[in-house]
Amino acid sequence: MRYGPSVLMRGVVGLATASFLIAQANAATLLREATIGEPPPLDVMLTTADVASVIGRHIFETLYALDSTYTPRPMLAENDRAEDGGRTIVIKLREGVLFHNGKEMTAKDVAASMTRWGNFGARGKLLMAAATSVEATGKYEVTLKLSAPNGAWKALIADVNGGLAIYPEDIAANAGNRPIEQKDYIGTGPYKFVEWRPNRYVEVERFDGYKPVKEKGDGFAGARLASFDKIRFIPVPDVGTRVSGVQAGDYDYAEMISGDLYESLSKDPSVQVQRTNAPIFGLFFMNSKQGILKDNYKLRRAIQTALEKSQALRVAFGPKDLWNAEGSIFPKGTPWYSTEGASNYSAHDPKKAKELAKEADYTGTPIRLLVSTNYQAHYDEASVFTRQLADAGINVQMMVVDWATLLKMRGQPEQWDIFVTHHSFAPDPLLLTFLNASYPGWWDSPEIGSLRAELINTTDPAARKSTWDKIQSLIYEQVPVMKVGDAYTYDIASPKLRGLNPNGPVFWNVSTK
């Protein structure tokens, strides 16, 4: 969970103004990023696909944004207060923020966006299922009333990845569950949508009416200052082509480079390596709605028991400093780190796996594993696991498609039994996609339903951590997903770029030397 000079509007002064003007004076005409493939529609409310989020972050903004410590900071919001024991949240909005159509953002836009997100957004129900009302209680004030407190409400609305991006009222109110059309890609971000040429590029250009916050840029929070006239996001599925393109100067930035090239590229003066600060982790989602794995927890545990995760990580990511065979969903050093259930993370016991499969009445029926080569690591992990499962007598049939097709097929439960993806670091468990019952995989057993409600409605940090321990234990018992391990991915960029963000490929506050 991937990123002439304009006249600044009143209120932006001091260091932010000076930095912006310097960046504008040195502006490059065009930045070209090589992405892993063609994105789905850029209606970022409805998708958690990283390739859409990388582009969407430049166009759309949220009420809060995560800083470098993954703490939510005000973005379109100015401040907030909680009332009635946390059941009422009042958010004061920044004034003078313009949409790309020139209209000022008001509370009506936010209320309409929040309503749509709650009904149809990829993560919306995690907050809005408990909403009794959301309304504009002033031109720049929104009031959200909940039936119960939500301990993670601010983190849940602090990222565009399946999150509460703010659209104009008429667009949000009329879109329903259909992806918004390209003509309606209207946000408040530092870049505005220009055009989408399928299989060629998505282009955005600097929005001269943009009003950044006053605070210095930090992570995804703070001022977002645009130095480039335009950015083109170019789908380049082949990793070798992405690499050679940056080396030759055809691209300025390329994402998701394979681990086997890490050491050589680290010594290559024609590129600079951008290793991420926070790990991603591969996930193999089980189909909890339909098919051979539906409610068959014993067969799922058989699959899990057969695997040796470090082998897959080594093949997928190469050098040891790019991966860690860690069973905790959250890495060490974070408040959510847990050892509960983790003894089952990487047992690699084919004999026991065969016994569990027999007890689960498994008779060799092919288990359909949906994977894409756009993310080479996904394919590498799937290939290793398929061989390991064969040693345990479990028959896996890999279905290899492009990423756009996988994103479509994973929403069709009759098409697959397991699908492969990865998850970015999340600041709160409620942002994990597999805790969302509407996310493909559709994990919604009575046990997780009860624990999810407990995690949502509790505001005390220690109590929430205790609940998360129970959830992680349940993950290893019911196996809705299998974590592969922590991986520190890396991108490459032209040596001419400076100010790159280690939290992901975003191109505000970036300029050329």
Could you describe the 3D structure shown?
It is a single chain. The chain is α+β, with helices and mostly antiparallel strands. It folds into two domains: 30-271, Periplasmic binding protein-like II (D-Maltodextrin-Binding Protein, domain 2, 3-Layer(aba) Sandwich), CATH 3.40.190; 278-489, Dipeptide-binding Protein, domain 3. It has helices spanning 15-25, 50-59, 107-120, 125-128, 153-156, 169-175, 239-248, 262-266, 297-306, 309-317, 350-359, 376-391, 403-409, 446-457, 461-478, and strands at residues 30-35, 64-66, 72-74, 77-83, 88-93, 131-138, 141-146, 191-197, 201-206, 230-235, 253-254, 272-275, 280-286, 323-324, 367-372, 396-401, 418-423, 481-487, 490-493, 497-498, 511-512. The protein is globular and about 65 Å long. The chain starts with 14 loop residues before the first helix and ends with a strand. Residues 1-28 have low confidence and may be disordered.
Distance between the termini: 29 Å
Biggest sheet descriptor: 7 strands, mixed
CATH superfamily of the largest domain: Periplasmic binding protein-like II
- How many domains? The number is 2
Shape: globular
CATH architecture descriptor text of the largest domain: 3-Layer(aba) Sandwich
Question: What would you report as the Rg, rounded to the nearest angstrom?
Answer: 23 Å
Oligomer: single chain
- Structure classification: alpha+beta
Percent of residues in helices comes to: 25-40%
Give, in spatial order, the strands making up the sheet with the most strands.
Answer: 8-9-10-1-11-19-12
The chain-level mean pLDDT equals 92
CATH class of the largest domain: Alpha Beta
Number of helices: 15
Low-confidence stretches: 1-28
Q: Estimate the strand proportion.
A: 15-25%
CATH topology of the largest domain: D-Maltodextrin-Binding Protein, domain 2
The number of distinct β-strands equals 21
